[in-house]
Amino acid sequence: MVGLILVLQVPVDIIPSISIKNYDINFGLSGFTLKINLNVQNPYPFDITLKGINLNVKVGNHRFAQISTSSETKISSSSSSNITLTTKAGYSYIFEAIKSMFSSKRKVLSLEGELMFDISAPNVQSQTIRVPINLSSR
User: Fold this and answer.
1) d(Cα 64, Cα 90) in Å, to the nearest integer?
2) Could you tell me if 119 and 126 are in contact, meaning their C-beta atoms sit under 8 angstroms apart?
3) 80: how many CB neighbours lie within 10 A of its CB?
4) What is residue 75's predicted lDDT score, i.e. its pLDDT?
5) I need a surface site. Which of 3, 100, 111, 127 has the fewest CB within 10 A?
6) Cα–Cα distance between 107 and 61 in angstroms, integer?
7) Chain center to CA of 50
8) Is residue 113 a contact partner of residue 20, using CB atoms and an 8 Å limit?
């Protein structure tokens, strides 16, 4: 009996899409907390797992935080999931961010970095894909 094993590669031109849903800045005694909600869209007909995030965060033109996480989030086939990221920083960072925001007419949050996904489905060779991120919210 001869068996045939079919190995498919995930098309590199079809990748999960990511958007900034909303964000919020809260101030406390020792600094501030930035909470960012991302929406991640899974374009595949099978589940994927978001396994890592590495992002630089800017407000206006000033970089004030880096977010890295390795917590895993399963995203169902052909659907989306909301991911919440949180980072804290001292007031020295927020003063530069406020100055940058007032020097421009727009309050802009931007994210630069990458998200890593594990892709494993029937007849698809398990692989990790890295999706570069360069997003802005106005």
Assistant:
1) 9
2) yes
3) 18
4) 95
5) 3
6) 10
7) 9
8) no
Q: Is the pLDDT of residue 106 over 60?
A: no
The identity of residue 59, as a single letter, is: V
The phi and psi torsions of 104 (rounded to 5 degrees) equal -110, 160
- Report the distance separating Cα 106 and Cα 102, nearest Å: 8
Residue 104 burial (C-beta neighbours within 10 Å; 0-12, 13-18, 19+): exposed
Find out whether 30 and 42 touch, Cβ atoms under 8 Å.
no
> What does the alpha-carbon distance between residue 95 and residue 98 come to, in Å, rounded to a whole number?
5
Instruction: Give residue 4's pLDDT.
Output: 46
Cβ proximity of 71 and 81 under 8 Å? no
DSSP state of 2: -
Both structure tokens of 127: 């692989």
Kindly tell me the number of DSSP H helices and DSSP E strands found in the chain: 1, 8
CA atoms of 112 and 134, how far apart (whole Å): 5
Residue 25 structure tokens:
């800045």
The tokens 């360069």 sit on which residue? 134
β-pairing, 17-27 with 124-137?
Answer: unpaired
User: Quick one: DSSP state of residue 103?
Assistant: H
